[in-house]
Structure formats: C-alpha cells, structure tokens
Amino acid sequence: MDIRPFRGWRFPGKASDVSLNIAPPYDVINAEDRNALLARDPKNIVAIDLPHFPPDQAGPLKGYQHSAWVLGEWKSDGTLRQDEKPALYAYEQEYRWSGKIYNRRAMICGVRATPLGEDVIPHEHTFPGPRADRLELTRHTSAQLSPIFAFYEDSNGEAAETLWSSVRTLPDIWGELNGVTERLWVLDDPGAIATIQASLKLTPAYIADGHHRYTTALAYRDELLAAGSINADHEANFVMFALVPRDDPGLLVLPTHRIISGLRDEFTVERLARSATDFEWQRCSLDDADLSDAGAFLRRYGEGAIAFMDASLAELWIARLVNPAAMQEVASDESDQWRRLDVAVLHKLIIDGALTPWRTDDLSIEYTPDALAVRRACSSGRAQLGVCMQSTPLTVVQDIASSGGSMPHKSTYFYPKLATGMVIKPLE
Predict the structure, then answer these.
(1) Closest Cα to residue 348, out of 332, 364, 366?
(2) Alpha helix ranges (H) inside 352-393
(3) CA–CA distance from 335 to each of 81, 208, 257, 346 (Å)?
(4) Neighbours of 12 (CB within 10 A)
C-alpha cells in the first residue's frame, strides 16, 4: 500500500466528546435513526452523509447540494476544524460482546486508489445503485466522510507498534455510539509516519466493509483524471481507510443470520428437512439452545452446522451437509473452499434449492448478527423461517479474496461498525 497522511476535518466536541456528532455507517441507518440522531444534535454527520432514503440509488440533486452546503457552513463556522499538519489517526473502539470486553485498534490514513485486486483486495460484489448514490455525494462534497474498513497482515507488528507507541495517553477526541466507546488520536510526527509507510509498502489491504465506497472513490478519481483536473499526486488519488491488523484481538467477525418471510402457509422446517436430503438433520429443544452466542452453540454440532426454526418454535433443527457432491453440481465454477462455506451451502442448496416449493414472489430475506432477533421474528410471526449460522474465519475470507473470488452475499458481519464522523478526509 502507498499510504499518505492527510489534514483531516474533525468535530472538536464538547471537552473532546463527539458523541452527539458521530453516527453509524449510512447503509445501516433508517429514516427513524436519522431523525433521532438529528433530534439529539442537528450537527450530526448524518445531516451530510445521508441526504435521501433509501441510499440504494442516486437521489434528487437537491439533497446532495444541501449536503455540500451544510459541509461548507460547518467548516466556516468552526463546527469542523482542520488539522494543521498531515496526520495519521490512531482509532480505537472498545465494546462488549457475549459478556467479554474487546478493544479493536485501527489506523486511519489515505491509501492510494489502485484497481481492485492490486493493493486493495475485495471479497464482495457491488451494485450500481449504491455506487451512484455515493458518487453523487462525493462529487458535491469533495470529501470522504467515512473510512473503508480493511484488515492487513502486520507480520512483524512494526506498523501497529509504531502507531500506538507514538500517540499520547489521552485521545484527542472520543465518543459513545450504540454502546461502543470511540477514541481517536492524531499522529503528525514525520518520522513515525515514514516508518509506518515503509513497513506497509508491500502489504495489501483486504476490504472488510466499504466495497461500494471504494469503487466510488475509484470512479471519482478516474473522472477527475479524465477531465485533466488532477495529477497523480492529488488528494483524490488517496482513499480514507481504517486499517486493522488481521491478528488484532478485537477484530471480531460475527455470523450473519437470516430472517425469511414470504413463504407459503404450509411451510414448516420439518417439511424442509424431508426435502433437503443432502443434509443430516438433528432436532433439539429451543429451550436448550443458547442463542446469545449462536456460533458457539453451533460449533458443538461440527463445522458447517446450520440451525433452522419456524414460526411454531416447536424445535430447533440442526443441519449439516453430508453430500458435498451436491455443491459441486450447483457451483462447479467456484473453488472447493467456497463450496464448503456454510453460507454458500445455505443459499445454493436450501434457499435456491430445497426451499423452492414454498417460495412466493414476496420472498424476503433480512440479515442480522443477533440470533435472538431471529427467534423473536419467528415468535412474533413476522418470519416463517429463521436461520442461524456460524461465523466465517477471517483466514478463509482472505484466502478466497486473494484467489480472486467473492464471498456469497452477507457472509460476514464485522462488529462493531466504524463510526462515521470521527474524521473527514478532503479530496480537493
């Protein structure tokens, strides 16, 4: 990676507390969330980052124009202040999961935009609608409002050690967001920055979250280059990333469970089990299933075990694939490693296969890292089928991405999400 420091724009906060100014990523916020954030403080970053709903396609130009106007006003009136020197930013998130406290540490920096698969490795496909939305916002604001979340191999630990040994004890800003403590330190020492740049020069970044925003940054840079507006050294060539060492103990990858509705009334998991003969099925009482950590519960049943429940909540059904040749038949163009993914097995053999007799045109799939939410959806009758998964090991994500493959849709949930608004990167 070609890493560059930048002069970020930041909320100074009240006594360095930016809790009222920061927000979750734009693509996990609904209209109600946005209104609640702005009710707490109208100078929350969502006033800029989320100009319309839904952000799955380009919206009215007036929304993006308003975002640009708000950003300009906040720069002018001191709501946002720009750091005096180019800097790297040490970013820590402290959070609790399944009764344990974790600290995930990242470095926010500019990374030179290169074609996907070179210095930046993707693991997901992107869709044109969200790209169009983010591109319009970038055109109007000339800024990157939130970092791309990526991991990398810090083989000797030099980059992380240099970063964290060079910052002060107390953070420059901090905040609380949805139970996560967010802390940011500014590192503008040229010597430490040079050491970090040299140590990561030959190291690629693997995108965890932010595929649409990265492809947007590429498109924006390419537009400016084609117009002759910038040269290869311009800020628009560098995309804001939050880089986390792959072995960071706080880098938690959760499973993404499925909440499914739009099935025929006669559907039951028992009937599904009779149809899905490539699987071995076991039943257990839902009362005996600890779904507060579904991944840990399912590991007792072996690699690839998947849990199914229906609206009756009579039992939990555990399935494991016992005929791997079935995946070869339906996904012959994918690698063996991809075909072993439980999320691939679920979609290829169950959702697109054995579930077919009960599917309707109203089929809907929601995604959540919370298995208890799956149970609640079934209990309330909102869902006819709930599916709980195990998490995908990070090394598997890296291996598939390195080979040029893409993970199935919604295979991973990197928890917690990065906060938007800790620092803004100018692209001008």
Answers:
(1) 332
(2) 371-380
(3) 49, 20, 23, 16
(4) 15
Cβ–Cβ under 8 Å, residues 414 and 18: no
Contact 142, 220 (CB under 8 A): no
How far is it, in rounded angstroms, from Cα 167 to Cα 181? 18
Sole residue written with tokens 């709980």: 388
**Entry field: residues in the chain:** 428
**Domain 256-390 is in which class?**
alpha beta
| Residue 427 near residue 235, CB atoms below 8 Å | yes
Q: Distance of alpha carbon 266 from its chain centroid, rounded? A: 36
Residue 213, both tokens:
């925003």
Can you read off the two tokens belonging to residue 324? 């791997």
347-362 pLDDT, tens digit each? 999 999 999 999 999 9
Q: In the numeric block, which tokens belong to residue 416?
A: 């917690």
| Average pLDDT for the chain | 94
Domain ranges of the chain: 3-251+416-426, 256-390
Q: What is the CA radius of gyration of the chain?
A: 23
Plot region of 215 (φ>0 → left; ψ -120 to 50 → alpha; else → beta): alpha
Among candidates 98, 30, 36, which has minimal Cα distance to 292? Answer: 98
Q: Mean pLDDT highest for which of 96-100, 108-112, 402-406? A: 108-112
